[in-house]
Amino acid sequence: MVIHLALALTFFNFVGATAARIVLTLYALEIGAPASAIGVIGGLLFLFPLLLSWPIGALADRVGARGLLLFATVCGAVSLVLPYFVATLYAFYIAAALNGLALAFYHVTLQNVIGVASRPEDRPRDFSNFSITGALTNFVGPLLAGFSIDHLGHATACLVIAFQSLIAVVLVLIWGRRFPPGNPDAARGMGGAEMLADREVQRMLVVSGLVQLGSDLFQFYLPIYAHSIGLSASAIGAVLATLAVAALIVRLFLAQLLKRVQGEKLLAWVFATGAIGYALVPFCGNALVLGLVSFFFGLGMGIGIPLTVILMFSRSAEGRSGQTLGLRLTANNFVRVTGPVVFGLVGSALGLPAIFWIVAAIMASGGLLSRAPAARSQSKKDG
Length: 383
Hints:
Elements: H1 2-30, H2 35-63, H3 66-85, H4 89-117, H5 123-152, H6 154-175, H7 192-197, H8 199-228, H9 233-252, H10 254-260, H11 263-280, H12 287-301, H13 304-314, H14 321-350, H15 352-370, H16 372-382
């Protein structure tokens, strides 16, 4: 029951968050907001996930999930109700910040609920289902936003999206007491400084950040490259769709894969497909070949993010899983904010193909880093 409730909340909250980004951006443009204001709205959507994921994770360890999720869902609802009544630029800034605050709270908390409430033998399957649910919201959210705007207008679309959070509020109020309680005594164990000093945690943070970097930059720069070779918007959309389809397919089998292959070895495969995919893109001259490369990329990198969640949770200290997952999200959000900026400068200086080849080399390095524990373990056995 707890896992199903967490997955339901994941669906409604993430649909609302994904749709909110589109609705807030397009509504702001509708009222005449300049490009700089749109950039501020985009930044505010990810500001709190960057700043607060780690402390929110620690809070989830201490007080449990119910109160945090209730706060998050209310923030999500208010963030979309506000622009309906007050269609001003400052209202959009507040709405974006509230929506980002909601995302910071329920992303960390729901991940931790999945890990804590799962039996060890079921954890890969439950995290896999969590990632599949997240992938579905990336499909449903934009469709809901688009159809709502086209048929109801921007203001009413805000209420439609807010309704997703209201459903989540009701679910938490009715069944939220079923969530595992917090454990204040266990939370007094290893602190943040000690956690960051742990070399294994450091390694996993770097690996997780590299997976996020590889996934984000591919989806960001692939359309730019496709446009540079003359592909139409519909062709570019179809190419990106092959990536989404491949990611969804491979996530269906993540639990079975983890039963047969050690997590670090599977992560090495993720980086290998990422490196090959990036290296091949500059040699693609048409939509068909680019779609095949995108599909291959998705078959590997599609499980990278859920796999790092599983591995990070497995390395968390007793009673510190929320803080560990929050630390991972902080690192990932830092990469999401800085990655496009840094590689944008690289592209300006060296050209677009150089971005793909440099990231390919980074992905290959990530593969070597992910295999480090397995190599140390084998050397100990041989010794």
